[in-house]
Each structure stands twice: as structure tokens, then as C-alpha cells.
Amino acid sequence: MVTVRLPKKSFKISVIMPCFNHGEFLAEAVGSVNNLNRDDIELIVVDDGSTDERTRKEIDRLYTQGIRVIRQENKGVAAARNVGILASQAEYLFPLDGDDRMQSGWIDRGIKILDSNPQVGVVYGDAQCFGTRTDRWQGGVFDADRLLYWNFIHVSALYRRSVWDQNSGYDSTMPVQGFEDWDFWVGTLEHGWRFAYIPEVFFDYRRTQQSMSTRSVLFEDQIREFVARKHALLYRRAWLSLLRERQSVKRTFYNLQTLLKSRMKHRFNNLPGVPTGLTREHISR
Prior knowledge:
This protein has 285 residues and is an alpha/beta fold. It has two domains: 13-230, Spore Coat Polysaccharide Biosynthesis Protein SpsA, Chain A, CATH 3.90.550; 231-266. Helices cover 45% and strands 20% of the residues. It has eleven helices and nine strands. The longest helix has 38 residues, at 232-269. Mean pLDDT is 86; it is low at 1-7 and 276-285.
């Protein structure tokens, strides 16, 4: 008997969806991916040790529907994303939290950017907030100095698997969960990757009073110190560059002042009625 091995299905994007007690919203989040009706996107749901019955039942339901599900004990969102990525197949990755909703308009354009420009490692866009806030999170054109100061790129961005490999995944040792994406993007910058911005909504971002990002802001100093220490060489290079720029500005300003003084003196000495060799000192006397 001859055994025929079917080729492994090829995916372009792996959507990694960690969830912790998101049973109330999980079906909506999963539906937003399934409703894209694309056969080049795989979805992996990682249950990070949920404790409520509703989430456990929803995970069971997804499993029976053929959704790929991974269960693990609670280790935090960074570890959950890493587990999902390790199990994924696609060359491009897109994290999506279990209470958010994925949008589709940007996908082909994002893939095209990564396919055509090997120097770009990350493609990011905007988020439409819903829940306790309804504003639009606008990422804006990439600015390295802005990223070093604080995060403005949401975790739900499209990036290469090689970026994740170089960063050794998301760092679960951060003192506070919720800003591991900032650390991840700073590491991406440190490895020399470029960022591309698409001014379109990539996903709908659920905002609640007790969200992880809301709680994390209370620990800004600890988060900043962790990132600055971990990426100290990058911050040092940025500081030296800024110092050189300021010194250059000072030199330029000094040269400009010297030039202006020289021109003013030349014009004054060539005024009608001023004898040759007569200076301002002679006149003031």
C-alpha cells in the first residue's frame, strides 16, 4: 500500500490570540478573523490558564469547531504569545488579544510591503477604540526617538517571524505585564529593522476600566527603567547622537553669528561718507 502524504498547508499570516478569562468576548474576536474568509491566515488561540467557567466552555466550543487551541497554566500574556508563535507556521505574525476584533482593509497592503522590502520588519497602523473609549489610536509615521521615549505602536501589528526570533520572543520577565510590546519594538529597532506605517485601522481595540494597559501605566517608572537597562547600548547611541547634534547646532549658530558680524562690519565700512580705514571706534570717539 502506498501512503500519500498531503503537503503541509501554507499560510501567509499567523494570528496569535492569547486569552485569559475572555470568554465573554472570545467568540467575537475569533469571528473577526474567521469572517475575513482568507485561506492564507491561520488562527491559534492560547488559553493562558483561564479560571472562569465561561471561558473554559468557549475554548471547548472552539476546539470542537476545528479552531486550533493551546491550553497552558497561567504564565502571562508574553509567554502565551510565545507559545502560540512557536506552534504557528506562517512567515508573518499578527498578535490579537482575545477581546479585540481584527479588520481586513490593510492586510494585502501590509503583506505587499513586507514581500517587496526586506529591510522592513514591522508594518503597523491605527486602532479604533470601543468600550469605555471610542477614539482612534493613531500610530503616526515612525519616529525612533519617540519610540525610545514611550510606546506608540500597538502589539497588534504585522511583522516577520525573523523579528520574533531575533528578539527571542516577548520578554515575560518584565516587572509589569502590559508593555512587553514596547520592549519588543525597541529590540526590533536595535536589530536594525525598519518600520512602515499604514494610516488605516488594523483592529478594534476594546477599552475597559480594568484593562492591563490601564493598570500598567501606574508603573511607568519601573517599565522605563527595565527597557532602558535592557537596551542600554541603543539608548547610549541615541544620547550620543543627540549630543553631537546639539554641538553641531551650537557650532552652526556660532558660525552664523560670526558671518553676520563680518557682513555688518563690511557694509558699515563701505557706507558713503565713511573714510577708508575709519571704524566704529573712530566714530564713537
